[in-house]
Amino acid sequence: MAKDLLLEIGVEELPSAFLPETINELQQLTRSSLENYRLQYESIKVMATPRRLTVYIKELAEQQADARIENRGPKKEIAFDKDGNPSKAGLGFARGQGMNFEELEIRQVGDVEYVFACKTEIGNATTDILTELLQGIITSLPFPKSMRWGNFSMRFARPIRWLLALFGSDLVSLQIENIASDRYTYGHRFLSQGKLEIKDSHQYFKQLQDHYVILDQDERRDLIRQQIQKVAADMNATAMHNPELLEEITYLVEYPTAFYGSFSPSYLQVPAEVLTTSMIEHQRYFPLYDKAGKLMPGFIGVRNGNDFSLDVVRAGNERVLRARLEDALFFWNEDTRQPIEEMTRNLKEVLFQERLGNLQEKVDRLAVMARYIGQQLSLSEPDLINRSATLCKADLLSNMVYEFPELQGIMGRYYAQHSGEEAEVCEAIFEHYLPRFSGDNLPATATGTVLSLAEKVHNLTGCFAIGFRPSGSQDPYALRRQALGMVNIILSQQLELDLKDIFATAYDCFEMVKPDIDKTTAVNELNDFILQRLRGILMERHYSYDVVDAVLACPSSNITDLQRRVEAVNQLKQSGYYEDFMVVYNRANNLSKKWEEDSYSAEVLVDDSEKHLYQQIKAVGPRIEQAVEQHNYTLAIQQLAELRPAVDAFFEAVMVMVDDETLKAARMGMLKQIAASCHLIAQFNKLVQ
Amino acid sequence: MNFQEIILRLQNFWAGQGCIIQQPYDVEKGAGTMNPATFLRALGPEPWKVAYVEPSRRPTDGRYGENPNRLQHYYQYQVILKPSPDDVIDLYLQSLMDLGIDPQQHDIRLVEDNWESPTLGAWGLGWEVWLDGMEITQFTYFQQCGGFDCYPVSAEITYGLERIAMFIQNRDSVYDIEWVDGITYADVHHQAEVDYSHYNFEQADVASLMTMFNLCEKEALQVMKAKLVQPAYDYVLKCSHLFNLLDARGAISVTERTGYIGRVRNLARMVAAAFLEQRRNLGYPLIKDPALREQLINSEEAI
Description:
heterodimer; A: alpha+beta; Alpha-Beta Plaits; 5-stranded antiparallel β-sheet; 4-stranded antiparallel β-sheet; 26 helices; B: alpha+beta; 9-stranded mixed β-sheet; 11 strands
């Protein structure tokens, strides 16, 4: 037999940012608790609004399942004495299990016999368990940040104000601090008065619906989306697609009503990003666009309530936005009063990082690094790079970026355009922050690419030089993201960059700060750090781990080249010459991997087969070298695969390990030569069939 | 409803809830939280209910009287309820209704906003209260003060009086608020805003302020040695205000900033510790139940 279980934790307004994760946690916690208590059920649904967390368990069994318990005791030879009577240990185990010794069973585990206590535990009535189970869930629900309130020591995201717990129509008795569970809930904070008595789950859903609470987050989200689309359509507009904002609003309201508001078109002279950031970040409004994709002087807000006196709400919101936009216009006018270059004057007043100095010092280092990278890549011009580096941090001193830090780079580009800087410089200022997040655009201009790489090289090298490297979840300077950005930029443009050389040059720029980590160590750590990111990215691109690891076992500081090798090895694995190649590689490598000596004398070779192999190696060697030099790894691999008949013949005809040391050295030397050529590409023994 | 009527109504409302109606504290400060009636009284086990207007100074927010929404001197209405009552949000909403703000006619929302004061070593969790999109109140459950856990927890309600007045009177500029018949906020404060902006941003003498900061810090430490809690706290407040002035003057680099904040926080911690000790020595007189008081003192001695 089964009944529905309903638990509602009534709270003061929970942070909207917590709720999606809290719903998951509560779902998992409920599922695992029911499992631990051996309670069958049909389904669990967790729903949340700012003021309540609701768990609805459909068809929860009224009785725990019986449990078959099997406890292993001592070994048989210990449980019985040598006369075959129960030993002290055996009797003790039986007593501990609440059983007679005769009831114990003997079972074999592996080669050993043990005594076992096997019994069936009869399940209890669910009603006897629910108090403990539900209180356990409530008290162990985790939050990113929790608090205490009143005189109590309980921690929760916000204070708990009521508890509703019903099994079928029976009250489940719970006590959390001063709150005892009861049969009451509350409707919308303003649209419903007083408490609502609840008989069972059906009535609960009905009552909430009648009292302006849309409990189910999915239903609420859909409703908000539809309302926004409708309001936008009425205004001949499209609302900005912004799932994060929609999600946040879903958890800010219990009963949504979307409404349109407008602002004076005169504010449209301010860059669109400023207006939309202000609308989204400060006010949680959806910006509107016309058919041509141009920002319109209007917005959509979502009220927590119905449409009663919606005009008052609209007017209030319009006034608040007006004040915000007035501020933004003021900042824009202030910031554009002088050319962007003027803003850079105070860069020395702004700290970049305590040990690494101020922003002016950073910009000076950036210019050096960017010029070097540009020169190595033959990208952009020193003058353009210098100009972009000089100006790229200027907007950090603007009023606008002080107010909206997320507009860094975007404002810099506007200010540079406004000051008549070259288009390439303006773009580079914006692009040097790219990519800002996973999936963001990569820099497209030559100068932007160079400066973006320099920015990341600078931050990584500076932090590693003073011993700040990310560990576990600790990565306060977002170095992993920056390293990923570097890898993505380099791979997407197939840039040929010797990263160790770049990091070494960058390291020299930090001499002033007296690094804690010496240059060689730092450069190697940095290169490894990049290679770890590269490994992740290649796996994401569906190269199999053995291919990637085989190549990374022969490291390089040119990741574009590493990627080419990965591609060649990947092709090899799917090719017709795979077997030939692996036979050549394995026969050569297995025997010679411990052989230290490189040089040998070919004159001592005696057998035709080995003389033939030597001729082959001599002929193929330069071709392989040339192919590797031209990064044509597939060609190099094919050349090596073609050695198979000669290698097979050699192994059939001669014994490598002979007493004649010079002859052995020559035979080993040839094999080692073959293996070494393979190792220019990868450690092929890491490949999995 | 004019400005002073708003204040009077709030005074009446919270007096009706059993709050002591205190007066502003007579040392410059950045917020009502820094008044000893909040910062010190939130510490320790004794109950406390208080409400007061607090003139607050934020030198960097000065705009020469030209910005309709920003002031370097403004008023907060501050309420402390310790321990936080179960119906604290309802009480707050009732106070809004007392000001003629009917929640059904508006959109009132509690949006997560966590408060932290690095200079006071204090933090709490709570909300900003939005009225039709405008932030009118900060609502905080104090978790720590002066680096010490708050137990019991106080609820702090901080009304932005000018914003509420602008809303009620439907004004776009703070200077147009009617203070009392025929007198505006501008009449009372505009010229001082202009003058203070000039002073804060241009005229304040950096060398003198630095000297004063060092002197006040020294005096705070000296007074602390004599265990004179509130006199020492006065100098902590002065340090805090002098730091804010130096900051507005652009005299403090980012690196130095952390240092200055740390110095003020150190002082605040010392005062908080001394206050806790002082109340214990006094035998927690605000706990009116002698048995409870006894029990608390005994349990603290056991630790």
